[in-house]
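Treating backbone geometry as a discrete language has practical consequences that deserve illustration. Part of our work consisted of pairing the sequence of a single chain with a tokenised description of its backbone. What the numbers capture is local backbone geometry rather than side-chain detail. For completeness, the protein is quoted in full, as a sequence line and a line of structure tokens:
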Amino acid sequence: MTTTNRTPSDFLPSPAWRIADLGRPLPDDPHAVSVCLPTWQANVGYEEGDPAVTGAMRCGYPRFFLHPTVLRLFAAAESRFAREGECCFVLPSQRVAERCAAFVERHAQVPSRVDSWLGGLAVVTLPAAARTWAKNFWQHAGEIVSSRRAASTLTEIEGGSPPASSRQDAQTKCTIRERIANAVGCHSDDVFLFPSGMAATFAAFRALQRLRPGRRSVQFGFPYVDNLKVLERFGTVGAGVEASQAVQFYPHGAAAEIDRLASLVADEELLGLFCEFPGNPLLRTLDLRRVRDLADRHKFPVLVDDTLGTFVNVDVLPAADVLVSSLTKYFSGAGDVMGGSLVLNRQRPFYAGLRAALLDEFEDLLWFEDAVVLERNSRDFVQRVQRINQTAEQLCHWLRQHPAVGSVYYPQFETPENYRAFLRPGGGYGGLFSIVLREPHRAPAVFDALQISKGPNLGCNFTLCCPFTLLAHYQELEFAERCGISRYLLRVAVGLEEPEWLIEQFSRALAVA
């Protein structure tokens, strides 16, 4: 289907919001990367492992929730490699499996084994009691086996003929890289593809560790949860130093914290500074110009995650040494495939060293079937984002006037001068925003009454709402609130629905506040 023949209704599933929709894939696809959690209590139940919730889930966000097809692949590996009391994780390559094994052994203090398997896969076998640490690696590192690759491998195990990669599939990846290069304004040779956005961030982090060993990193601004976890749990400074001390965290990303950063870098060489543009979930934007000035004067690399701003809206590569993006989100839009990208800025002094360090262990782990879907989905990326920009802006202005709404967090309202400094001609403020009610404790009732799709993920062609703090920080709610993130915050990712329809849905839901 060509993009010119598509209409907004082609993208939109039936809204999944009723209690009966619990566990339904969003969209209705075997490889969906979101799942319907239609009530506040369902989200709590998911976080607490309530079987009534988890048992109903047919999928989930693939780094957090192991897809049923992936679990079948793990079971097949266990039947071959595991002994009594052991479990297996299947990883996309030998190198990834070795990283997983090292992570588990470091944190759980238990031995594990790594074995090669079919089609370049590798298996980590470890004590079942340490399974949580392998799951943490899967979540934080993002170097996952996709549901499509798992299905292909199971077909091979069962004696069938799995789909074979071809020269055309390689060209598909070239097309994706060129599409990103054209959008960002760089050479396609400087674009690298990964199986998830977190895998891209993790690769950049490891490259920096090889290039600048023994140094602390900085996380500037409150980030998406796993961005900080990578720096904390994989960071190394020296013998006897806790991993959490390997990162200096400035949670608010405000001007006063840039002053403190300036004092830090005057006395200490950094591994690098990591930031989002804008941040998730408060959509605040750091003063990237000032950070860039500090980086130039004190010679440290800057990594920027522009997933929420998107290539369409903001041009942050000139201020970054490394640019990472989750292609799962706006670039794909359909919500049925994972992917990530990393772009190196060849105009920056760390370019040659970073490129060499990255290539030292880079592997093409984006499964070719996923690449085909990603390329097809992204053909109308620009047009979709432009439409989403307009709808989100209209909805946010309406919400700001609603008497039940206390705060609307959106780049147009939060530190807009920092965002506009990198706004592209014709760009907008994106499709993500968060709200906190005037009476925050009424959020569960409003969420339950809201008749739109509800689940994790963002950047889809259909609107999604979730109680973000519960999902991302359930085990650390007090920490999140100390950083200014309310436990009652509702995050909304706007899709391609008509703005009038969305306003109607929010009007009805807010009536219960």
The two ends are 43 Å apart (CA to CA). Confidence is low (pLDDT under 50) at residues 1-11. The chain is about 40% helix and 15% strand.
